[in-house]
Design goal:
By secondary structure, the chain is an alpha/beta fold. It has two domains: 292 residues, Aminopeptidase (3-Layer(aba) Sandwich), CATH 3.40.630.10; 139 residues, Aminopeptidase i, Domain 2 (Roll). 26% of the residues lie in helices and 23% in strands. The strands form four sheets. A nine-stranded mixed beta sheet has the order 1-2-3-13-4-14-18-16-17, sandwiched between helices. Strands 8-7-10-5-6-9 form a six-stranded antiparallel beta sheet. One of its GO terms (cellular component) is cytoplasm.
Length: 465
């Protein structure tokens, strides 16, 4: 009789496999460093995709098996597809990851001066512990679009010669009445998430200018980027932790970095689709936006972009022989991995987990049958038949996998894009990596798990279900 037992993936690895894992993770760290925003992830992904033979869908009038195509949606979504041997109408293999991460966005009118310091006001994006963002170096990334339509890319704080930005926290000598009596989620309040951007006053000929530090900062921005204060209204500028991904621990087994939720799945699904030949069913790697705020908007999965690009694939394969029922039939016969992370078992706070059902770093791919909260609310709940098929694939290909849940019942919970995929009738399950310190500025993942995700996604694309 077989019993359930998950084991650490590092055990019994030979030197060749360990070297392979370490080399793969160097590429992953570079991806994290280059893609700290959705737009940057899209740019990096497309550059790599073109090196692997992918071309814009507009270059294809008729799709045949083996064609490699890509779609871009508003610079925040990427779709890569390899056309399979079977007709697209018979179903697709989707691996869907999100490339947005919690951060601080600048407000439309951010700059002001107080106490002879220039500051910028922010609005946090996604679920964060606000106090974690104070007194640490932050980098400013994004774009500004001027009234004339000129686009300006901004990235300040990553090079050693760049300045950085920070939120000044209150010293412990003075925080007794102001902060210590607050609840944890109000130690630093939303309106207190303001960054220091300047301190040097400047003499102006115009005597009406009173906020000379603020205007000095605006002058610097205009001199370097030719942008002015009203241009912040048509900008997407965000603060992210400055610095590169790093190895953690004397054994170099863990990666610490910002944005691993969910770029760990984005990178591995990209590398998986780059490394497969013509699959039986069409393979799709879909990188989406806005998951951290509910998958809303035209670039989130609540939009109908999945229908748009899937319909476009069908049209270009079937020519004039297309109707809406083909799209519905295709989706209903498709399979998806909602590739998102899970909460790894934290040794400092083990009490919030059900240890028997918690995922662990170093144990490989995490299959999460359901998420949600308080009675599986807002959850996709994968069919038993689909879970069994995935177990068979991963066992047959000797891929380490485990199960996981987001904490104890009634302890918390969370959601992913899975329910939006299941809305179309697509067989869907969450499949990602265990992460420690999730949603913090410095998340932790196992190098073994990163490489095992890649192997799992590759097997999912290629193996029969």
């Amino acid at each position: 009789m077989e019993t359930l037992k998950f084991t650490n993936g590092w055990l019994d690895l030979d030197k060749k496999r360990i070297d392979e894992i370490n080399l793969f993770n160097e590429g992953y760290k570079h991806f994290l460093d280059q893609g700290k925003t959705e737009r940057q992830c899209v740019t990096v992904s497309i550059a790599q995709a073109e090196q692997h033979g992918f071309r814009p869908i507009s270059e294809f009038e008729q799709l045949v098996a083996g064609d490699k195509v890509y779609f871009i949606n508003r610079h925040k979504n990427v779709v890569l597809a390899i056309i399979g041997q079977r007709p697209i109408s018979e179903g697709i293999r989707y691996v869907v990851s999100h490339i947005d991460s919690p951060r601080l966005d600048l407000k439309p009118s951010p700059v002001y001066e107080k106490c002879e310091l220039a500051l910028m006001r922010t609005h946090y994006y996604g679920g964060i512990k606000k106090y974690q963002w104070a007194s640490r170096p932050l980098a400013l990334h994004g774009i500004v679009v001027t009234k004339s339509g000129r686009k300006v890319d901004i990235a300040i704080g990553e090079d050693d010669s760049d300045p950085v930005f920070t939120i000044p926290d209150l010293l412990p000598h003075l925080d007794r009445k102001v902060q210590r009596e607050r609840k944890a989620d109000e130690v630093l309040k939303g309106e207190e998430l303001q960054i220091v951007v300047g301190s040097v006053p400047m003499t102006f000929d115009d005597e009406k200018i009173k906020d000379t530090v603020k205007h000095h900062v605006l002058t610097k921005l205009f001199e370097k980027y030719e942008i002015s204060e009203p241009d912040f209204i048509s900008a997407e500028l965000m603060l992210v932790p400055a610095g590169k991904a790093r190895d953690v621990g004397l054994d170099h087994g863990i990666i610490g970095a910002y944005g691993q939720d969910d770029r760990i799945c984005a990178y591995t699904s990209l590398e998986a689709i780059f490394d497969i030949d013509t699959p039986e069913q069409t393979a799709v790697c879909f990188l989406v936006d806005k998951e951290e705020i509910g998958s809303t908007g035209a670039t989130g999965l609540e939009s109908r972009y999945l229908e748009f690009f899937t319909g476009e694939l069908l049209v270009r394969q079937a020519g004039g022989q297309y109707n809406d029922q083909m799209l519905r039939r295709c989706l209903w016969q498709s399979y998806a991995l909602s590739s998102d992370v899970n909460a790894g078992l934290n040794p400092l706070f083990e009490s919030v987990h059900d240890a028997q059902n918690a995922s662990k770093l170093g144990y490989g791919l995490v299959l999460t049958k359901y998420t949600g909260h308080g009675g599986k609310v807002a959850s996709n709940d994968a069919d038993a038949e689909y879970v069994a098929a995935l177990r068979r694939i991963f066992d047959d290909t000797e891929i380490k996998w485990q199960t996981g849940l987001l904490g104890k019942v009634d302890e918390g919970g969370g959601g992913t894009v899975a329910k939006y995929l299941a809305h179309y009738g697509i067989n869907t399950i969450d499949a990602g990596a265990a992460i420690l310190s999730m949603h913090s500025p410095f998340e932790l993942s196992s190098k073994f798990d990163v490489h095992e995700l890649y192997r799992a996604y590759k097997a999912f694309y290629m193996q029969a279900l």
